[in-house]
Amino acid sequence: MNPPQRNPTPPPRSNGARSILAAAEALFAERGYNAVPVSAIAARAGISKANVFHHFKTKDRLYLAVLRRACGASTQVWRERMAGDGTFGERIRHAARAHLLHLLEQEDVSRLILREVVENGPRRGPELAEQVFDEDFAGLVQMIREGQHRGELRREADPAVVAALLLGADVFFFLARSVLIHMKTATFAADPERYSSLLMDYLLSGLAPNGAAGPDAKSGR
Fold first, then answer.
1. 196-201 contacts: CB < 8 A, separation 24 or more?
2. Of 57, 125, 130, 153, which one has the greatest count of Cβ atoms within 10 A?
3. Which CATH class is domain 15-206?
4. 78-122 per-position pLDDT tens digit
């Protein structure tokens, strides 16, 4: 794959562009970037090949737009739960659980994103960071800072490391579950919600301000 253009394609606003993105997302997730010709995307979207290039100047720009859309959908799960009612601890627990379930429910798209990071990250890291991941990761970091400002998380904790722990734990579960579920000691693998609940118990306890039990601490189950 050629390196992407430095200027990312803006978010689609027309129905035609959204149809193209939906078709491309499904095909890239099924087959991978190299195995999907633009003509196949056009056929899936019910439009002409020329119309695809009208909305997205190159196949690579279309691919980046697909990755951004998929990451944006995952981030929106965090934002919606964090904007709800309840304490910070309650909201971040709900958000973490919903994020893990989103990864599992959107398995093909989740694998598409992770495949891109693993296979092309060393070569395309700067472009992927700038055009796909940075803004969404920064949003999660800001959510962690909210808990610090409210006094519910240790102020000295690096919020970016906390965000990486949250995402990394979910990604590990997503990638390893098919093996973990057959391991006698990994009983959590059969119940993603229990895994997320215990994970947040341990994480929030470790991040509690000195002398506190952690935001909305619960006993392990």
1. 196/93, 196/96, 196/97, 196/100, 196/170, 197/93, 197/97, 197/221, 199/96, 199/169, 200/92, 200/93, 200/96, 200/97
2. 153
3. mainly alpha
4. 999 999 888 999 999 999 999 999 999 999 999 999 999 998 889
